[in-house]
Amino acid sequence: MRDYRRIARELALRVLYEVDVGRQPAREALQGALDQIAGGVRAGITMAVREAEAAMKREPSGPAVFTPRSVSVERRRVARAVTRALERIAIAFEPTLAELFSLSAATDALRHGAGQARLALSEASAGPLARLRRTLDSSMLDLQEREHAWRVAQRAVERMATTLDRRSETSLKTAHMLSSLVRGALRFRDEIDEQVRPLVSDWPTERQSAVDRNVLRLAAFEILHREDTPVPVALNEAVELAKRYGTEESGRFVNGVLSALVARDAKHKAEEPSD
């Protein structure tokens, strides 16, 4: 599995690029990236619904016997009831999912995020499952088929919960780091451009490729303003981003500029009078 920090940096670069080149409002560009992260969790929940739907379409196993039309119609009704119940759960859970990602992007609310998601899923499931239980209890199908339908629905909800356990914590961490990188790089963009300008006097910001200058802004923000990111990590990640999304020369260019920035910053800190 890819490290969430690398994913956050790649998405942050995309957002900065869209703001810089596409003139897209920062809030909209960031929200689009957050929606993409949340989409991984949504996809797992949707998959659980579709798997349950497929399970209900399979005919019960057993000897091949004539099935009355009324039974076939009732089986289809019950199958639709199972699918509708699960779809209602997914729809009821969606606002909570969106709120969790918005909250995670705004604040460091990761500790309880996954637990809150599970609790919200349980609350969203209560009503639809209760209605499904009533539908099954009143069905003309035999007990074995009704209990099979109930187990299919319960397993689908369990798969949704498993998706939250496996994906939500990492996804929320990614959302938080993405938001922090984007907001920080945009907040200090002018300052960073001024600090970088003397280091690229022959290739000013406006002449750099959009990828190169936004990689520099992103990495410079981490190097100068984020103490939780080791400088070598920020530098190496920036070079990898430049190689992946820039030109053949981007990696060397970004490495040279950032290395000079790091050296100058270290010199300034060494010259500062100690307390």
Structure report:
- With 275 residues, the protein is an all-alpha fold.
- The chain folds into two domains: 182 residues, no CATH class; 81 residues, NusB-like (N-utilizing Substance Protein B Homolog, Chain A, Orthogonal Bundle).
- 79% of the residues lie in helices and 0% in strands.
- It contains nine helices and no strands.
- Helix 1 packs across helix 2.
- The radius of gyration is 26 Å and the shape is elongated.
- The two termini are 45 Å apart.
User: Alpha-carbon distance between the termini?
Assistant: 45 Å
Instruction: Tally the structural domains.
Output: 2
**Stretches with pLDDT under 50, minimum 5 residues:** none
Q: Provide a count of the helices.
A: 9
Overall, the morphology is elongated
Estimated radius of gyration = 26 Å
Describe the main β-sheet briefly: none
Structural class: mainly alpha
Helix content: over 70%
Mean pLDDT: 89
| Order of H and E elements | HHHHHHHHH
**Count of DSSP E strands?**
0
